[in-house]
Amino acid sequence: MTTYSEQLLPGPVEPLEAVAALVDSGLFDQYVVYERDNTWYVAGDPLGEVMVRPGTVQASYAETVEWSDTPWQALDAVLAQTPVEGWNAFGWACFELASDPARDGGEPLAQLMIPGTEVHISPAGIRVRYLDAARAGAVEAALALAARARQGHSRPVDVRTSDGTYEKAVALSVADIRAGRLDKVILSRVVEIPFAVDLCATYVAGRAGNTPARSFLLDLGAWRAAGFSPETVVEVRPCGLASTQPLAGTRALTGDAGLDEQLRNELCTDAKEVFEHATSVKLAFDELAGVGGFAATKVSEFLTVKARGSVQHLASRVETSLPPGVSGWSALGAVFPAVTASGIPKAAAYQLISELEDERRGLYSGTVLMAGSDGSLDAALVLRSVYQQGDRSWLRAGAGIVGESRPEREFEETCEKLASVAPFLIPIDNISGVAV
């Protein structure tokens, strides 16, 4: 069994500068940056790659495992064969992994990497875990250039242009909800970006302007993205405590303290917003209770308000204790995709989303995550993000639709959420190598 070696680089450290130095150095062809609890994890040099496709989980270091209804147990079994002690895995899973796992083409539904080099960055210092001693030296050399970070100037993108398509979709959804087809659905819309985006520079600028629950920056070939996640899909501790953090109900954050307080009070007393949130919490409770049992499941936080960049949300937390033999992957499978990005009931919401949205969601409303050999799992909900595939860059945002929804208000809510990312987009051709 292979083991990691470690090297400590003392602080103080400016984490975003260090992240940018590593990513911009070109040291890693593929990488995942994942921020959790004021620590940034930078994973590169894949020791192994795990791909989830329709019906199979394939790893570069293990035999293929087949799956039918859900992939989570198969994924757990493949990761258990990882030939390195104390591994962490980093990657993504797309929305269609649950909503349409049998789609044609065999495209990846999820991708994880086991890094050969892993850098943990916090304000106090840096820890490098590595399998190749030469790579530890290369990391230290790249970090020495952190003070020469690039400066970039953002370019505005109009997120308010509308041809009425989204509003019409909302009206159709409201009619279906009032007819009893479903209780809630999250409908999203896409905003194309008419220039090539520098994801690393955008991530640094956007993280400085946001207050996310988690943040991430990744390039794993199939997907490139940067995001500022407002909530987690699931958090699992090594002891088996699992929790999910539904956020539903939204008002803008303007920067005007008086107006923001007024909007907060409006949010907390708006019947539509409170109903939307409460129904989401109920489903999250039922889903986690399905793996942990009703006696072990509780709502530990209810109807608080969380500031998330350009918006404020009603927020709650549901948690359970997983019984022996049940892994964090089962907990993720129970709640994925998040109710706050799909709908109630989920199967009916998936169908309506496929009817009314113009393209597959992919990474949007899926998850970027990190998992450990100790049983830990931390999965961020992919919202407030910029996405890239090939030469295309785009934004996407949605709103929760219930029977009392108004199309114009739901469109405005998507604009409020897009304002968490759109102001920070930095074009590739708008970057200079000026020292800061």
UniProtKB/TrEMBL annotation:
Q: Tell me which cofactor or cofactors this protein depends on.
A: Mg(2+)
Q: Which residues form the Chorismate-utilising enzyme C-terminal domain?
A: 165-417
Family matches, as Gene3D superfamilies: Anthranilate synthase
Keywords, in A-Z order: Lyase, Magnesium, Metal-binding
Is Signal given among the entry's keywords? no
Major enzyme class? lyase
Q: Which Pfam families does the protein's record reference?
A: Chorismate_bind
The superkingdom of the source organism is Bacteria
EC id: 4.2.99.21
Annotated Gene Ontology MF terms? isochorismate pyruvate lyase activity
NCBIfam families for this protein: salicyl_syn
UniProt protein name: Salicylate synthase
Record organism: Kribbella deserti
Classification from the root reads:
Bacteria, Bacillati, Actinomycetota, Actinomycetes, Propionibacteriales
